[in-house]
C-alpha cells in the first residue's frame, strides 16, 4: 500500500514557514530597536526634538483619517472590502492635503511651523498607508509578506538612521527616514497583496460619493472617533513630561521603553491573534473569537510583567537609586504593566462590531489625563498617569470579551498565485 505523505508533511512545512516568518520579523524588530538607539549614541538631540511634533500630528491623523481602517477592515464582509479600501485612501489623501494646505499658509508667517506641518503631511500619508497595508495582509493571512516587509523596513531604518546621524546629519533627517521606511514597507506589502487598494481607489473615484460609500463612512464614524481619542491619549502622555519635575528623566526612560514594547507587541505578536479572531468573527464562530481573545489577553499579561520588570531595571540603572523612592519605582512599574496589559487585543472591539462601546471607553483616558495635567504636577501627576493607564486597561477587559454583534460572510482563501509568491 502506497501512503500519501504529502498531506502529512504539509502541516510541518506550514509550521516551519510560520516560524521562519516570525523569526525574520523578530530580527527586523531588533534592527528597529538598534535604529532607535542610534540618535542617542550620536547625540543628535536636535533631530529627535524636531521629530516629535510631525510624529505626534501624524500619529493623531494617520489612522483616524482612514476611518479606522486598520481595525474595521479585519471583520467587514467581503462585499465591503473594496468600498472600505477606496474610502480609506480618500480619507488619507484628504487629510494629507489639508495638512499640506496648512503648511503652505503657515510658511508665509513661520518657516519653522510651515515645515512642521509639511513633514506632518508626509508622515500622515506614509504611516497611514503602512497601517492600512498591515490590515490588508493580516486579513489575507500573508505573514510571509509581512515578514519580508518588516525585514526591509528594519534594514532601511538602521542604514537611513546611521546615514543622517553619523554621515549627513541635518535637522529633518529622522523625519525623512521615518517617511522612507513606512513608504517602503507599504509598497512591499501592497504590491504583494490580493487587495490592490490604490487601483480600487482610482477606479471608485468617479463614484466615491455614492450611497454605498457614504453609508460606509457613516458606519465608520464611531470607530474613527474612538481611534482619534485613543491616539490623543497616547500623545497626551508625552505632553506630561515638562510637568513631572524631578521625575522627567525617569518618565522619559519609561515612556521610550514602553513604547518599544508596545510596538513589539502590536506589530510583531498581535497580527496572528488578530487573524484568528477576525476569521472567527467573519465565520460567526464565537467560541474561536473568545478562545483567541483569551489567549491574546494571557500573552498580553505576560508581556506586561516582563515590560514592568525591564522598565524598572532600566530606570534603576539610568537614574541614581538614591534619588528614587520605592513608591516612585512601583508607580513606573504600574505604568509599564498597564501599557502592555491589553496590547494584543486593542483591535478586538472593532473586529467584533462594538464600535459604540469602544468610543465610550476611549473617552476615559484622554479625559482623566487631561484633568490630571491641569490639576497635578511632579509625583502626584506621575501617580495619576500610571493609575489612568491601569484603570483604562482594566475597564477595557469586558469590552473584548463580548461576542461579535452580527454574522458576516467569510473571507475566501488568498489565490494560489499570491500564496506561492
Automatic annotation (TrEMBL):
- Organism annotation: Corynebacterium terpenotabidum Y-11
State the source organism's domain of life. Answer: Bacteria
Keywords from the UniProt entry:
Membrane, Transmembrane, Transmembrane helix
Q: Where are the transmembrane segments?
A: 21-42, 48-71, 83-106, 112-137, 149-168, 174-193, 292-318, 324-346, 358-376, 382-402
Protein name according to UniProt: Polysaccharide biosynthesis protein
Amino acid at each position: 500500500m502506497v501512503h500519501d505523505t504529502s498531506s502529512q508533511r504539509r502541516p510541518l512545512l506550514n509550521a516551519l514557514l510560520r516560524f521562519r516568518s516570525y523569526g525574520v520579523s523578530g530580527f527586523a524588530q531588533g534592527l528597529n530597536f538598534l535604529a532607535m538607539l542610534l540618535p542617542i549614541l550620536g547625540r543628535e538631540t536636535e533631530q529627535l526634538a524636531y521629530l516629535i511634533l510631525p510624529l505626534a500630528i501624524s500619529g493623531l491623523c494617520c489612522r483616524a483619517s482612514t476611518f479606522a481602517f486598520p481595525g474595521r477592515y479585519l471583520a467587514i464582509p467581503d462585499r465591503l472590502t473594496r468600498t472600505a479600501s477606496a474610502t480609506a485612501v480618500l480619507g488619507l489623501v484628504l487629510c494629507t492635503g489639508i495638512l499640506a494646505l496648512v503648511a503652505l499658509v503657515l510658511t508665509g508667517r513661520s518657516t519653522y511651523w510651515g515645515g512642521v506641518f509639511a513633514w506632518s503631511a508626509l508622515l500622515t500619508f506614509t504611516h497611514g498607508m503602512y497601517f492600512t497595508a498591515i490590515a490588508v495582509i493580516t486579513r489575507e493571512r500573508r505573514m510571509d509578506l509581512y515578514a519580508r516587509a518588516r525585514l526591509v523596513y528594519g534594514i532601511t531604518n538602521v542604514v537611513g538612521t546611521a546615514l543622517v546621524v553619523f554621515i549627513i546629519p541635518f535637522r529633518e533627517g529622522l523625519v525623512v527616514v521615518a517617511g522612507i521606511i513606512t513608504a517602503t514597507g507599504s509598497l512591499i506589502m501592497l504590491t504583494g497583496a490580493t487587495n490592490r487598494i490604490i487601483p480600487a481607489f482610482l477606479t471608485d473615484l468617479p463614484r466615491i460619493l455614492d450611497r454605498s460609500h457614504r453609508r460606509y463612512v457613516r458606519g465608520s464614524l464611531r470607530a474613527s472617533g474612538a481611534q482619534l481619542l485613543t491616539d490623543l491619549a497616547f500623545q497626551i502622555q508625552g505632553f506630561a513630561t515638562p510637568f513631572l519635575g524631578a521625575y522627567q528623566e525617569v518618565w522619559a526612560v519609561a515612556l521610550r521603553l514602553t513604547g518599544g514594547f508596545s510596538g513589539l507587541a502590536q506589530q510583531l505578536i498581535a497580527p496572528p491573534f488578530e487573524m484568528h479572531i477576525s476569521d472567527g468573527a467573519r465565520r460567526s464562530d464565537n467560541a474561536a473569537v473568545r478562545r483567541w481573545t483569551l489567549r491574546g489577553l494571557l500573552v498580553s499579561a505576560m508581556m506586561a510583567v516582563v515590560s514592568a520588570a525591564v522598565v524598572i531595571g532600566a530606570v534603576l540603572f539610568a537614574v541614581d537609586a538614591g534619588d528614587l523612592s520605592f513608591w516612585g519605582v512601583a508607580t513606573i512599574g504600574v505604568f509599564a504593566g498597564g501599557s502592555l496589559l491589553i496590547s494584543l487585543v486593542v483591535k478586538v472591539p472593532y473586529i467584533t462590531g462594538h464600535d459604540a462601546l469602544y468610543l465610550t471607553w476611549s473617552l476615559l483616558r484622554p479625559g482623566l489625563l487631561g484633568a490630571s495635567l491641569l490639576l497635578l504636577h511632579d509625583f502626584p501627576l506621575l501617580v495619576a498617569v500610571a493609575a489612568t493607564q491601569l484603570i483604562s486597561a482594566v475597564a477595557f477587559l469586558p469590552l473584548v470579551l463580548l461576542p461579535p454583534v452580527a454574522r458576516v460572510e467569510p473571507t475566501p482563501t488568498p489565490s494560489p498565485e499570491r500564496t506561492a509568491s
